[in-house]
């Protein structure tokens, strides 16, 4: 494996793309390319979580896929610190939407441009994300063919289209978010303050108007050209209502887009792999929820398998020798 680090400049801000690129092997794929996954960590648009970056990339790499982590623009500009939520958050006008989806678009183009060098199948570049990163991935996958991306990046639909999207506990519907926030105002003041501040970090304002809600709600942009989705969440997520995932599945179903969804009975927000590999504490290790990784692996192998022959070279040699003896 080699690590490839690329800086992507969009609208005066830099995103960092880190590729965990599996070397070519004369024993395994023998020069054939691999599908790739670009991972967008969550972090409420305040930061990009380490827990939802490299550990996830290592998991996908263990399945034989090229994995890359995109650290898109956030409020903290590369740090992990949280702002003081007890005070109004001043907006960073240079760091708000649509910068994040444009950075993901540039990452997709970069991976495809380096397809030969990085042993990537350019027709099989997927996007993945968790929480806010799941929002970025879902919004990109439903808007890749719109002027906000095509015109800015001077790229075609074909160049920008992801092969699929993999999203964990994503935010997909800002109308639902605004409704939930009103309910949380008195019952969960910390969650309310966090999500209002997250709106400022992403949109530059606490309460978006109807037009902006439409723009940033992936469920409103699903159409017949949307790629397949793998979605997972937990039924007890206290921060991002699981209905976001369910609504996305309904929108996909209504358009006849292939999808798979898993809703696990219990689990907090932000579980990532839900295993020791991505945990900050014991509370983030949930063996039942971690099954999403196995389900996703099956889904990926079914839809984006590695180009492997039925038999390896040694097996072919044995088979040939046995045939000669007959």
Overview of this protein structure:
The protein has 326 residues and is an alpha/beta fold. The protein has a single domain, classed as Rossmann fold (3-Layer(aba) Sandwich). The protein is built from eleven helices and eight strands. It has helices spanning 54-62, 99-113, 132-143, 147-153, 157-160, 174-187, 189-203, 210-215, 243-254, 291-303, 313-325, and strands at 2-10, 13-21, 34-40, 66-71, 120-130, 165-168, 229-234, 259-264. The protein has an eight-stranded mixed β-sheet with strand order 1-2-4-3-5-6-7-8, with helices on both faces. Helix 2 (99-113) crosses helix 4 (147-153). The longest helix is centred in the N-terminal third of the chain and has 15 residues, at 99-113. It is globular, with a radius of gyration of 20 Å. The model has no long low-confidence stretch (mean pLDDT 95).
């Amino acid at each position: 494996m080699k690590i490839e680090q690329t800086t992507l400049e969009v609208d005066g801000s830099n995103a960092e793309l880190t590729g965990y690129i599996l070397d070519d092997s004369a024993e395994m794929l023998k020069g054939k390319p691999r599908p790739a996954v670009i991972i967008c960590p969550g972090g409420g648009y305040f930061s990009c979580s380490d827990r939802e970056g490299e550990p996830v990339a290592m998991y996908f790499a263990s399945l034989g896929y090229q994995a890359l982590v995109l650290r898109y623009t956030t409020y903290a500009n590369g740090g992990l610190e949280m702002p003081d939520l007890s005070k109004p958050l001043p907006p960073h006008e240079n760091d708000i939407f649509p910068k994040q989806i444009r950075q993901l678009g540039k990452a997709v183009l970069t991976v495809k441009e380096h397809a030969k060098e990085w042993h990537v199948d350019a027709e099989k570049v997927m996007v993945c994300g968790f929480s806010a990163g799941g929002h970025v991935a879902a919004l990109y996958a439903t808007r890749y063919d719109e002027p906000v991306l095509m015109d800015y990046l001077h790229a075609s639909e074909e160049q920008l289209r992801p092969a699929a999207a993999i999203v964990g506990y994503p935010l997909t519907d800002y109308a639902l978010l605004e409704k939930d926030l009103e309910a949380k105002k008195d019952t969960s003041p910390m969650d309310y303050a966090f999500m209002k501040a997250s709106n400022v970090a992403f949109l530059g304002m606490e309460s978006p108007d109807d037009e902006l809600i439409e723009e940033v709600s992936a469920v409103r942009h699903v159409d017949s050209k949307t790629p397949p989705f793998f979605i997972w969440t937990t039924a007890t997520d206290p921060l991002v209502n699981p209905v976001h995932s369910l609504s996305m599945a309904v929108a996909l179903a209504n358009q006849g887009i292939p999808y798979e969804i898993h809703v696990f009975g219990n689990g907090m927000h932000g579980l990532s792999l839900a295993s020791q590999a991505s945990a900050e504490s014991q509370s983030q290790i949930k063996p039942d929820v971690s099954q999403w990784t196995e389900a996703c692996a099956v889904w990926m192998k079914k839809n984006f398998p590695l180009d492997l022959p039925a038999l390896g070279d040694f097996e072919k040699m044995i088979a040939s020798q046995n045939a000669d003896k007959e």
